[in-house]
Amino acid sequence: DCQPKAVLEYTTESIAVPNEIFVIDLQKREVWEGVPENPEHVNNPNDLIYCIYTSGTTGKPKGVMIEQHSVVNFVIDSEKNVFQHTFIKKSKSIYSTNRIFFDITVQDLFLTLLNGISVYLSADSLGIIDYYIANALGENLGMITTPSKIRASFEENEKYMDRFSVVMIGAESLALDLARKFVEKNIETFNGYGPTETTCGVLYYRCNDADLEECTSLPIGKPIANTQIYIINENNLCGVGVPGELCIAGDGVA
After folding, report:
1. Per-residue pLDDT at 138 exceeds 90
2. Confidence band (pLDDT; 50, 70, 90) for 14?
3. Whose CA is closest to 228, among 200, 209, 203, 204?
4. Which residues, 6 or more positions from 112, have their beta carbon under 8 angstroms from its beta carbon?
5. What's 172's DSSP letter?
6. Taking the CB of residue 140, how many other CB atoms lie within 10 A of it?
7. CA distance 12 to 172
8. What b-and-e string marks burial along 35-46, b requiring 16 or more CB atoms within 10 Å of the CB?
9. Of the candidate ranges 117-126, 186-195, 199-208, the one whose mean pLDDT is the lowest
10. 3 state SS of 223
11. CA dihedral 150, 193, 165, 116 (to 10 degrees)
12. What pTM was computed for the model?
């Protein structure tokens, strides 16, 4: 569907690929042999960095094409990027529980590696935390995940929560009781929102700033740098408290 020029393969399974598409088998030794010098820089900010598919909840999944500058904007450490700034300052390493085709891995991989943070990938196909590994990794871990994975991971092992210094929970509605558990342990806890079409999360709310005993629901926060958020009713901007459609503009839009 995405009409690739080449396919990278790393499996013993038999995968049917059309003959006209070049297949590179990463398990073959000769793939890694050759010229040792770095290749020439040929990319510019408007070139694609990846194509990732939406979940297809509204119909057929579609490929979203993200350009280089959109990811650069997302990973920049600035005071405007509240979550990114906190994450970079307080995480020594990150435990990634997400699958590579899920857009939340853009945060797992680009936000971390481009800011000098180590990444440890969960081997569990469901993304449940391996507590032996979490224990071995020590303290000041970061995690970016969904509420359902958080519940599944910490249901019987809440004692491992103190391994984490920063967590961002998104992709689903974050329940207050879950946010309270992390905030009570003085973990920097963020509620995040952002569709695949805006690169990744574009709105973040720091749950530690709220009186969670008084809240009835959690806000989704304020936009990151170079991003504008509008609440629209047809062609009109809505006033405060008036329901409408959430529209996003800025450097992260595909």
Report:
1. no
2. confident
3. 203
4. 91, 94, 118, 119, 142
5. S
6. 13
7. 35
8. eeeeeeeeeeee
9. 117-126
10. strand
11. 120
12. 0.85
